[in-house]
Design brief:
The protein is of the alpha/beta class and about 140 residues long. It has 6 helices and 4 strands. The protein has 2 domains: about 35 residues; about 80 residues, no CATH class. It comes from Ideonella azotifigens.
Length: about 140
């Protein structure tokens, strides 16, 4: 098997979410060996690569579920102006996101309550703690 040239791991971007996981000592040792031999830059590089490969093997299943559940795939951002337009139209949103749902810093808890009927997130939700608290009964992390 050809050796992979080690490279610097990409820095976290605003769209990344940090996770913690527990691994057995043998698995961790094998990862460290591959890093030491230059196949991966570091443990995180190995884990990101493994996750991408595994998700790639299930890409069709994910696509079908996204279509069936009418999920937005990727990043869905709402500003106060977006929600004010929804409120002016007398409507409420049922937000369903696979990825990142983001409510801007200028969204108040009152505006969120008036315009967001439900919020289903498979991934991460970025919003102020006040807005998250206000919407707590309407948020589902699946």
């Amino acid at each position: 098997m050809p050796r992979r040239t080690a490279h610097a791991a990409p820095a976290l971007t605003p769209t990344d979410e940090k996770i913690t996981l527990n691994l057995g000592y043998v698995d961790l040792g094998q990862i460290d060996l591959l890093v030491q031999e230059g196949f991966y830059a570091n443990r995180s590089d190995f884990i990101r690569t493994a996750i991408r490969q595994h998700l790639g093997s299930h890409a069709e299943a994910v696509r079908q579920v996204v279509l069936r559940k009418t999920l937005v795939l990727g990043i869905q951002h709402y500003s106060a102006a977006d929600l004010q337009a929804v409120q002016a139209a007398g409507q409420q949103l049922q937000i369903r996101v696979l990825g990142l749902a983001s409510l801007a810093a200028d969204v108040t808890p009152e505006l969120a309550l008036a315009t967001i009927e439900s919020l289903t997130v498979l991934g991460a939700l970025r919003a102020s703690s006040e807005v998250k608290h206000a919407l707590a009964g309407r948020i589902r992390y699946s």
